[in-house]
Specification:
The chain has 13 helices and 13 strands. By secondary structure, it is an alpha/beta fold. Helix 1 crosses helix 12 and helix 8 crosses helix 11. It has an 8-stranded mixed β-sheet with strand order 2-1-3-4-5-6-13-12, sandwiched between helices.
Length: 357
């Protein structure tokens, strides 16, 4: 099918989902590649403050929109199962790991009507003649925020370590692993924990969910370093824990999501990995000093900002609203050619459209 036939088909189906009545949507996990696995129905974070016109369902015969939460795996067979289920609505894929696994991501997006990247700077390769790339919707926080909010208030006056926390998987292919390993040699300032998925021999794999949340809440400052220019959810997680945050200048969407004025307000400190350890130590001390100077007020300010702007609920709403804007003509779609991809997309040349929060 040519793009000239495909695009009207996509818009016609999506328009029916937003025809003035209730819009029913389903959330499907891309981590279960051989079966349709729903999520969100019993999650108060996703259902909290849900717009009245949106309603979540696990009945695919009722759903107008299906959002597949893709985590970098090949979900092409999952689309086949969704086809067999009888679902006839609009298919959206949220590519949370589009900075990695290009071939798996490409096989997954071909089956969708709308592609929502989590990282704009490395999403051109997702363009194709079968689906429309919508605005980038960054990944939300790592863990459920309701639990974090409860624990934060319980520990608000508890002392925190005056060190920079960094908990990461030790990927051999990622240059950040060597950088983090080097920081771990400076334990007076940095508490870096590198974990191996293969060995699973570190403390992390023995920790409960509560243990992990308590770990975040026991430090004044944390550090966010990308694998491949990606905007790490660790930034929002650190803010939710009330921390000041060190962020690498290698994060390519940083200024769009956290512009300089907002970074100054929240205590987000930008650094360059190439500047050397002593320079980073100096910035880390400034970040911890900022934490101390603002005290409880700063903790609650950063936490409130993260809860308002970077929850899973907020991201799901944004995806639904972005699809509706495209379906109703509020966001124009063009055919765009880049060196690394050709296809249908909203205008990524406009920074007001490129990122949606």
């Amino acid at each position: 099918m040519s793009v000239y036939k495909r695009f009207p088909e996509i818009i016609e189906t999506a328009s029916r989902a937003f025809n003035g009545g209730k819009t029913y949507f389903s959330l499907v996990s891309g981590d279960s590649i051989n079966e349709i696995s729903f999520y969100g129905m019993k999650n108060p974070q996703i259902l909290r403050n849900l717009n009245d016109k949106y309603e979540i369902t696990e009945d695919l015969s009722l759903a107008n929109i299906l959002i597949l939460n893709n985590h970098g795996l090949d979900n092409s067979y999952l689309w086949h199962l969704i086809d067999k289920s009888g679902f006839s609505g609009t298919r959206v894929i949220w590519c949370r790991d589009n900075h990695l696994g290009e071939m798996a991501n490409l096989r997954s997006v071909i089956g969708a009507d709308f592609v929502i990247p989590a990282h704009s700077s490395c999403s051109n390769y997702l363009l194709n003649a079968r689906s429309v790339r919508g605005p980038t919707v960054p990944w939300q926080m790592l863990y459920e925020t309701a639990e974090m909010a409860t624990r934060l208030r319980q520990t608000l006056d508890s002392p925190r370590q005056a060190r920079v926390f960094g908990g990461y998987m030790s990927y051999g292919f990622a240059k950040r692993t060597n950088f983090l390993s080097g920081l771990s040699q400076h334990a007076d300032v940095f508490d870096i924990k590198l974990n191996s998925r293969e060995k699973k021999d570190t403390e992390y794999f023995k920790m409960s969910r509560e243990d992990i949340l308590n770990q975040w809440l026991s430090y004044k400052t944390s550090i966010a370093i990308p694998i491949n220019g990606d905007l790490s959810p660790r930034i929002a997680m650190g803010l939710c824990a009330g921390q000041t945050v060190l962020v690498s200048d290698e994060i390519q969407d940083l200024d769009m999501v956290f512009p300089p004025s907002l970074r100054d307000e929240l205590g987000i400190f930008k650094f360059s990995p190439s500047a050397g350890t002593e320079e980073l130590k100096s910035i880390a001390r400034k970040a911890m000093q900022a934490y101390d100077e603002e005290g409880r007020e700063g903790i609650l300010k950063r936490h409130a900002y993260a809860m308002e702007n970077h929850t899973n609920e907020r991201r799901i709403h944004t995806i639904l609203q972005s699809v509706e804007k495209i379906a109703t003509g509020q966001l124009a779609v063009v055919m765009q050619a880049y060196p690394d991809g050709v296809g249908m997309t909203v205008d990524y040349g406009n920074p007001d459209i490129r990122i949606a929060l």
